[in-house]
Amino acid sequence: VKTGYTFAGWYAEAGLTTLVGNNGASYSPTANTTLYAKWNAITYTVSYNGNGSTGGTVPSQGSFAFGSSYSIVDKGTMTKTGYDFAGWTAADGTGTLYAISTASIAGSAATYTTAANLNLFAKWTANTNAISYNANTGTGAVPTSGSYISGAATAYTVLAKPDGLTKTGSDFIGWNTV
After folding, report:
1. Does the pTM of the predicted model rise above 0.85?
2. Beta strands 118-126; 43-49: pairing state
3. Residue ranges of the chain with pLDDT lower than 70?
4. Apex CA 159: angle with CA 157 and CA 164, to 5°?
5. Which of 64, 105, 141, 161 is most buried, taking the most CB atoms under 10 A from its CB?
6. d(C-alpha 169, C-alpha 172), whole Å
7. What's the pLDDT at 145?
8. Which CA distances in Å does 107 have to 4, 104, 110, 176?
9. Residue 101 and residue 50: Cα distance in Å, rounded?
């Protein structure tokens, strides 16, 4: 047994080029012989879950061998309407955040090691939209600006016209986005 590896057979030399056999194979040596075990590193996967993405493509699954490090990819073309991508987590977007493996100023990248398959979920943060009011050639104070989080359970409530906001020769009929 070798942790992180599977047995791949017995070989006749240290260079592991001549397979003698696997467990239970017949072998008839003609002299004293040393057999060498070959071990193959277990391959693990890194899978990506869009966690509610609404467009683009979730990155393809990657893999790495036991004992080697792996890099976490960026989101690629994946999007979610009203949200910004905030990285990958190990649990439905709420677990520990994994840094994306882009080179930093110093030239290094975030790499990780583990001895297990890794399922990563996209973490999304809602866009915050600024709401501002414009008197549109009227005079007087306008309501204080506000904000609205995309996808919030409650809709934004448009504020009423302040009493002091007027425009000569016009009646206020509401706020517009143009």
Report:
1. no
2. parallel
3. 101-110
4. 175
5. 64
6. 10
7. 85
8. 30, 5, 10, 49
9. 18
Q: What angle do CA 111, 38, 116 make, to 5 degrees?
A: 35
For 50, other C-beta atoms within 10 Å of its C-beta total: 19
Tokens for 168?
């000569």
- Environment class of residue 71 by beta-carbon count within 10 Å: exposed (0-12), middle (13-18) or buried (19+)? middle
Pairing of strands 83-89, 118-126: antiparallel
- How far is residue 33's CA from residue 127's CA, in Å, rounded to a whole number? 69
Task: Report which residue type is found at 47.
Answer: S
The CA dihedral of 83, 85, 89, 92, to the nearest 10 degrees, is: 30
- Burial class of residue 49, CB neighbours in 10 A (0-12, 13-18, 19+): middle
Predicted confidence at residue 103, as pLDDT, reads 47
Residue 30: both structure tokens together? 């003609």
The structure tokens listed for 65 are 């061998």
pLDDT of residue 136: 92
> What was the pLDDT predicted at 104?
45
Determine the pLDDT at residue 110: 65
Query: Could you tell me if 127 and 149 are in contact, meaning their C-beta atoms sit under 8 angstroms apart?
Result: yes
DSSP bridge pairs for 122: 88
Q: Which residue has the tokens 């996967």?
A: 45
